[in-house]
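Structure ticket #2291
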Amino acid sequence: MSDPEARLASWKEIADYLGRSPRTVQRWLADYGLPVHRLGGSSGPIFAYKDELSAWLRNRGQADYVTPSAATSAPPSLGPVAVNGHAAESGICDINSAPGLLKGRSAELTALGHGMWETLSSADFSTAVRVFRDAIDLDPGNARALAGLSFVLLAGGLLNSLNQSVYTVSAEDSLRRAVEIDPDALQVRTARAWLKVAVQRNWKAARRGFKDTLTRNPLFGPALVGQALLHIAEGSLAEASDLLLEASTQSPLSAPTLLFRAWNAYLSGRSATARSLLAQARMVGHSGPVMDALEGLALIDREDPEASLQPILLLADQPAPHPLLLGALGYCHAAAGQTREAQAILHTFMHARTQGREDCSYSLALTFIGLNDRANAMRWLKQAYADGALWSLGYQSDPILAPLRSDPLFQAAINNLSYPSPEDATSRLASAS
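Resolution: structure written out below.
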């Protein structure tokens, strides 16, 4: 004889058992196959069995993330995570209970998400977002999952070449929640420091955050890469190179690490090294528009820009080339005297700006540099910085800006932008100790 208490006969009973709202439970049925049954067709009353729900919770996520899905055109909104059940928010709960199973599965998914950094690629981005988002769904109090989502969204802004503000809003909201729950968690402090560098340009706070993280875990890859970005903003490219090499040693398949290494090599004037690193990335299966764009930058021959056109044109022969790649192409057309082609690229960028794209200001500046229009070049360089463009972190070293460095107006413009000062030798030694 069946146990009547093992059967749940309404959305409210199911939601109370799982410690979630009825709306969340209904979404789990639609999206993930929560074992809920109906009597008499699609309009009949629903019911579920506790043992089936518990088995579903135990298996939750085990097969969901085997195959990376294609990168999405925009990150999913974090949105409100409703909790209609006090048990899910309790600090300690029976691991065999529904809330306990939810927390356990959430912890497993969080570990999976953070582990994906070691092999994160452009194609993996949406999968990593989904892993963290599901972990938050299962346990809204999981600070490490919230921090992981924030970090992946910030990294995804680079890997997927989309409107950075879309990512930033979700990343900031996710991190705000994580800080409220557990501000001292390693992942939370690292994500905060990343946000300080990539978005807020609060250099002192970022430096404190990365130092604290690396003191606690000297080999934590996201912190090594974030500290390297801070060094790039300082103009300390050798120090950035050392950190990125260490991060790459820890995570040889991490696309963000390989891309930042290539960009740092380009900024250092080692274009051949940058192309070699990008070739290595392709050999281990990475691809994507940012990789093509960085290769386009590294292919520019400022002494003979016309010779650079053909290989860059081949890279740009794709449905949606990265704006940075088009900027490299615009520079080469302009510097080679092909003004009409350069103006056509400028028109494309201007149209994109009217459509809300914020990731083409630096590319506009490159094209104006090729046209020797310094006033407009500096205007768009400043706009790229205001937009929070990653590439603006490298202005102090960027070789393509060399023609502007002798211009007092350029120096004044750079001085008006906020960049960190390199630490002195004593501070570096104390940090290393």
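Closing remark: Residues 288-420 form one domain.
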